[in-house]
């Protein structure tokens, strides 16, 4: 492993399980196991997959004065969120925007009252913390030193409830402290596969014990980042650095659902966050391009950054993610396309495979709401 690449806490266990490792976002991560990507993908859709996502950053945020009022006021100035009507232990999706309305990172936040827990993407963790500290000088941001796993798939509830029955009571995007193998583990019913499941923060001294217990269930298999990527793409979920970047806005990306009505034009807390001018203008007038889903009837994989052409041969978009779907058996892709344009072909070296725009997601989500 290169000196600049960090190891995750359970690396030795993954090697024991036969994982093939590769560098990702500064970490040496399990990419796939002996079963292979397609088998791992289909197992997650059919039963339950266990993903190690300990490379993600887990932040605990508090106000210096210890009050929830100061915490909420500062975060509302930094992010397009609203704590009014936000119940305790409910997780929400949001993003850290730059002054031009671009997505510096997308985030998951849980309102815990006197503190907020935020999960940030691995490749952006240090930049995110620095920007948040700059935007919120009245707050403290501390890394939570814990492993993080995701248990995903239709059997996830039954598997986890065998360790703590409280798991079955959680609904989508709700959080609770579960007791797993004697350890308290902050858990949300969420994930990045489109399947029902949980993301679980594990104390380091109990992490291996808990993971081994979960893997002892025959319905659970270890799954690498390769299948995590194909699963999220089938679910139409964007990947930061590919489908969303610092130069794409939430409106262009189809993620405006995360902006509460109160932060939009005419709302009680309208604007007031970085990039608000552009985002509110796009909400009112529409963007010049949009993220869309496409499929192809041909067998040629269509990957980023393939150009998309309309019927006249004019370039009207660019692919940001693409794969051959293990569930559907055909190429699927996400792309940014000029508003109103209709791509009919992709440029793949000397070939021009046909494409057709379809609604996202490609595979229906199965969250337990």
Give the distance, in angstroms, between the N- and C-terminal Cα atoms: 41 Å
Mean pLDDT: 97
Task: Please state the structural category.
Answer: alpha+beta
- The first-level CATH class name of the domain at 6-54 and 145-234: Alpha Beta
Low-pLDDT segments = none
User: How big a fraction of the residues is strand?
Assistant: 25-35%
CATH architecture of the domain at 6-54 and 145-234: 2-Layer Sandwich
The total count of strands amounts to 20
Helical fraction equals 10-25%
Structure commentary:
- The structure is a single chain.
- This protein has 369 residues and is an alpha+beta fold.
- Among the domains are: 6-54 and 145-234, Probable tRNA modification gtpase trme, domain 1 (Gyrase A, domain 2, 2-Layer Sandwich); 288-361, Aminomethyltransferase beta-barrel domains (Elongation Factor Tu (Ef-tu), domain 3).
- The protein contains eight helices and 20 strands.
- It has helices spanning 11-16, 37-46, 68-78, 125-135, 156-161, 207-215, 225-234, 276-285, and strands spanning 6-7, 20-24, 27-32, 48-52, 57-63, 91-97, 103-111, 116-120, 139-143, 146-152, 175-180, 183-188, 197-203, 220-223, 289-295, 307-309, 315-324, 331-338, 345-346, 356-358.
- The strands form four sheets. It has a six-stranded mixed β-sheet with strand order 11-12-13-10-4-14. It has a six-stranded antiparallel β-sheet with strand order 19-16-17-18-15-20. It has a five-stranded antiparallel β-sheet with strand order 6-7-8-5-9.
- The longest helix has 11 residues, at 68-78.
- It is globular.
């Amino acid at each position: 492993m290169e000196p600049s690449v960090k190891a995750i806490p359970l690396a030795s266990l993954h090697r024991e399980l036969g994982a093939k490792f590769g560098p990702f976002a500064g970490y040496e991560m399990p990419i796939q196991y002996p079963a292979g990507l397609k088998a791992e993908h289909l197992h997650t859709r059919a039963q339950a997959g266990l993903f190690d996502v300990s490379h993600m950053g887990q932040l605990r945020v508090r106000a210096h004065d210890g009050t929830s009022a100061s915490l909420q006021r500062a975060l509302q100035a930094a992010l397009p969120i609203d704590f009014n009507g936000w119940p305790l232990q409910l997780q929400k999706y949001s993003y850290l925007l730059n002054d031009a309305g671009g997505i510096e990172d997308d985030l998951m936040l849980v309102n815990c009252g006197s503190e907020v827990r935020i999960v940030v993407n691995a490749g952006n963790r240090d930049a995110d913390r620095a920007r948040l500290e700059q935007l919120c000088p009245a707050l403290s941001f501390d890394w939570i030193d814990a492993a993080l796993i995701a248990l995903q798939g239709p059997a996830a509830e039954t598997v986890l409830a065998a360790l703590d029955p409280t798991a079955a009571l959680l609904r989508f995007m709700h959080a609770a402290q579960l007791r797993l193998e004697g350890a308290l583990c902050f858990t949300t019913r969420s994930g990045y596969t489109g399947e029902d499941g949980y993301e679980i923060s594990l104390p380091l001294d109990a992490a291996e014990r808990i993971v081994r217990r979960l893997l002892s269930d025959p319905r659970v298999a270890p799954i690498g980042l390769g299948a995590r990527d194909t699963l999220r793409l089938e679910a139409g979920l964007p990947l930061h650095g590919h489908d969303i970047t610092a130069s794409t806005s939430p409106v262009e990306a189809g993620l405006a659902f995360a902006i509460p009505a109160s932060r939009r034009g005419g709302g009680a807390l309208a604007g007031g966050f970085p990039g608000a001018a552009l985002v509110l203008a796009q909400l009112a007038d529409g963007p010049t391009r949009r993220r869309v889903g496409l499929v192809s009837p041909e067998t040629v994989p269509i990957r980023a950054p393939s150009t998309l052409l309309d019927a006249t041969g004019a370039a009207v978009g660019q692919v940001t993610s693409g794969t051959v779907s293990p569930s559907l058996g055909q190429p699927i892709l996400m792309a940014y396309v000029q508003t109103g344009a209709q791509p009919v072909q992709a440029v793949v070296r000397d070939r021009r495979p046909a494409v057709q725009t379809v609604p996202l997601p490609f595979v229906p989500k199965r969250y337990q709401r």
